[in-house]
From TrEMBL:
Domain EAL intervals: 190-435
An example Gene Ontology molecular-function term: cyclic-guanylate-specific phosphodiesterase activity
The organism's place on the tree of life at top rank: Bacteria
Pfam families given in the database record: EAL
Record protein name field: EAL domain-containing protein
Annotated signal sequence range: none
Taxonomic lineage: Bacteria, Pseudomonadati, Acidobacteriota, Candidatus Polarisedimenticolia, Candidatus Polarisedimenticolales
SUPFAM superfamilies for the chain: EAL domain-like (SSF141868)
InterPro entries xref list: Cyclic-di-GMP_PDE-like, EAL_dom, EAL_sf, Rev_trsase/Diguanyl_cyclase
């Protein structure tokens, strides 16, 4: 006797199949799942509109904030597009993603009210409005501080049936055509951004804010970290956006030099500066300016010596080629410059990197400090880092301290220095010292 499958078996198979065809972050199907419906829609009309929605800056956002943040962004976009159906997007529009766990959205528009057929001009107009609406949806408190800012581009194409071609390939071809048009829009946007970045460098349109680093045991100020800022309100206000664009534009060295010079000149107007921490990339250490007398002259104008300057290396950057980084900092260290390893504990932690560079300071990433007073695993991880720092002779600086509870917890775990909004917000020369 053949046993019939239990109802639970069917449900399990259904859920397995659904997970293979629907994106978990957005709840939308991958567009190949719409083949049959698209085929039936084309029976009544000559062509269907296709929109390809892309976002610039996503890889950088994921690397900086993690995949969970990226998933929240994709979920927000899906909700925004769904709300547009019947408004910006005509009724009957079909939403999908380019693939399960993908990061592009595909919209099929069978008809537009008042028109016999969908045409390219109408699709282009709809695409512009969709992009503007999506960008405006990321101005709330949850995403307002996101940097780089998300940019949206929408490409379009027309899908029609041709009996000489397999229908599935016609769909893929139209999606690819819309994607290519979207990418050209992004490239045009990138070129405009590169031109603006070059203008910023030529006009020295960069300012420096200073963020104090506090001794948790005495309350005294160890020093200040110099934080570069581009034009206020622009896409390049935050340094991560400027430096992300500087690579493709071939302007990283020039931008790094500008930020460094601006910081050194700005600190001349500060009282109670202490040590000056400035962010550098391993690549920028090959700048001849480091070996010339210009840096020392700028320090002297601020009544500082090389021993007062600490070079902050981001750990992910330093970890890419530790031997080269160690070789680059050796002559600088011999001249008295201090070395700090930034972003420690952000997921890139490498004991080999710490041991090879043997920094004077380990700056623990704020993601490890956040709510550490109530997270035992974070406490254990920080305790381990403090022990490693002790063996290396490095002082530990905790970044992103925002509450008294966090400050007390890290101090009890042996962290000497803290930096964060609990103590002061980054400020202009004079403001930071006053805080």
């Amino acid at each position: 006797m053949i046993r019939k499958p239990e109802p639970m078996h069917y449900r399990t198979e259904y859920l397995r199949l659904k997970s293979a065809l629907h994106d978990p972050a957005t709840g939308l199907p991958a567009y190949p799942l719409l083949v049959n419906e698209l085929q039936s829609r084309l029976d009544a009309r000559r062509q269907i509109g296709v929109l390809h929605v892309g976002m610039s800056g996503l890889p950088l956002v994921e690397s900086l904030y993690g995949w969970q943040t990226l998933d929240r962004i994709l979920s927000r976009v899906a909700a925004g597009l769904t709300a547009m159906v019947g408004d910006v997007l005509p009724e009957g529009s079909m939403l999908s993603v380019n693939a399960v766990a993908g990061d592009r959205f595909i919209i099929f528009i069978p008809k537009i009210p008042g028109s016999l057929e969908v045409d390219a001009g109408q699709l282009a107009t709809i695409g512009v409005t969709v992009a503007e609406r999506l960008e405006s949806q990321f101005d709330d408190d949850e995403f307002a501080g996101l940097n780089p800012r998300l940019g949206f581009q929408v490409g379009h194409a027309l899908l029609s049936e041709n009996p000489y071609y397999r229908f599935e390939r016609r769909i893929h071809g139209s999606v690819e055509e819309a994607r290519n048009r979207e990418e050209r829009l992004e490239q045009s946007r990138d070129r405009a951004g590169a031109d603006e970045l070059r203008r910023i460098i030529e006009d020295s349109d960069v300012t420096t804010l200073f963020h104090p680093i506090i001794d948790l045991f005495t309350g005294e100020t160890l020093g200040h970290e110099a934080l570069a800022r581009g034009p206020r309100g622009s896409i390049y206000e935050m340094p991560v956006s400027m430096f992300a664009a500087s690579g493709p534009a071939g302007e990283t060295a020039a931008l790094d030099r500008l930020c460094r010079t601006t910081a050194l000149c700005s600190c001349c107007r500060m009282d109670g500066l202490g040590k000056l921490f400035i962010n550098v990339t391993p690549q920028s250490l090959s700048d001849p300016e480091w070996q010339s007398g210009r840096i020392v002259d700028l320090l002297a104008e601020a009544a500082l010596t090389p021993g007062d300057l600490v070079l902050e290396l981001s750990e992910p950057d330093a970890d890419q080629d530790t031997a080269k980084t160690a070789a680059a900092i050796a002559p600088l260290r011999s001249r008295g410059f201090g070395i700090a390893l930034d972003d420690v504990g952000s997921g890139y932690a490498s004991l080999a990197t710490m041991e090879r560079l043997c920094p004077d300071y380990l700056k623990v990433d704020g993601s490890l400090i956040r709510d550490i007073d109530s997270h035992l695993i974070k406490q254990e991880a920080l305790t381990s880092l403090v022990q490693v720092a002790g063996r290396l002779g490095s002082a530990v600086i905790a970044e992103g301290v925002e509450s008294e509870a966090e400050s007390t917890a890290i101090r009890d775990l042996g962290v000497r220095f803290g930096q964060g909004f609990l103590f002061a917000a980054p400020g202009m020369p004079g403001e930071a010292a006053g805080n």
